[in-house]
Amino acid sequence: MSFTKKISQGVLSAAMGLSLIGGGTFAYFSDTVETQNTFASGTLDLGMNPSAVVNIDNIKPGDEVYREFTLENNGTLDIHKVLLNTNYSVADAKGDNTDDFAKHIKVTIMYNTSSATNAVVETTLYELQNQQPDLTELNTSGYPKPDGIPAGEKEKIFVLFEFVENGQDQNQFQGDTLEVNWTFNAEQAAGSYHDDTDESSN
Predict the structure, then answer these.
(1) Band of the pLDDT at 39, cuts 50, 70, 90?
(2) pLDDT per position as a tens digit, 166-195
(3) How far apart are alpha carbons 26 and 23 in whole angstroms?
C-alpha cells in the first residue's frame, strides 16, 4: 500500500472517530414522564340582602331610621375587606337650599360581635361621600374573628340614619328628595405562599 493511501485511510478513520465523539449517531436509553398541572382561580362573589337599604318618605328633623342588611360571601375565596363608596344627589323641591341636605343626615353603621354592637362608621352622609370605610373592620381588641368575610359566611350590618334636628330653621329642606347610592366593593386578602413540599397545599 502506498504511503499516500495509508495517510488517507488514517485521516478517514480519525474523522469517523471524532464524529462519534462529537455527537454522531449512537444508541442510548431514554424515558419520558408527562405531568399535568392546573391553576384554578377562586372567585369573589359578594351578595347583599336586601338589595335596598332604606326607602322612606315624609322624614322630618329628629327622625331616626334603623335598618339591617346582610353581606354574603358566596364565592370560594375569603373576602378581606368590603369597602363602601357613597354617592348621593339632592332634588331641591323649591330651589331655595342654601345648604347641602346631606350635611343634616347622620349615618351610623355598626356590626354585631358576641358581646356588643360596635360602630364602624359614625359621620354625616355629606362626609361619608369622601370616605371609603371597610364595613368588616373589627376594632375590638381580643375579638377572635378576623376582619373580612370568610368564604361561605355572612356578616350582618346595622345602619341608623338620623335627620339631625339642629335647633335652627331647616324649612328649606321641606319636600326635598335625597337619593343615596351605596356601592360595596369586596377585596381579596393578600396572596399566600404555596409550598409544593407540603401535601396539604397541593
Answers:
(1) low
(2) 999 999 999 988 888 888 888 888 887 877
(3) 8
Question: Which amino acid makes up residue 167?
Answer: G
How far is it, in rounded angstroms, from Cα 168 to Cα 176?
A: 17
83-119 pLDDT, tens digit per residue, is 889 988 888 989 999 999 999 999 998 876 555 566 7
- The grid cell for 202 is 397541593
Residue type, 1: M
- Nearest Cα residue to 126 out of 53, 180, 175, 185: 180
Where do the H-state alpha helices sit in the chain?
3-21, 125-128
Please give the C-alpha separations between residue 97 and each of 166, 174, 181, 182, in angstroms, as whole numbers: 16, 10, 21, 24
Quick one: cell of 106? 347622620
Pairing of strands 177-188, 79-91: antiparallel
C-alpha–C-alpha distance, residues 130 and 96, integer Å? 25
At 103, list the grid cell: 350635611
Q: Are 141 and 71 in contact (CB under 8 A)?
A: no
C-alpha cell at position 32: 419520558
Q: Could you give phi then psi for residue 51, rounded to 5 degrees?
A: -75, -25
Report the distance separating Cα 92 and Cα 96, nearest Å.
7
Question: Any idea of the CA torsion for 122, 124, 126, 130, to the nearest 10 degrees?
Answer: -20
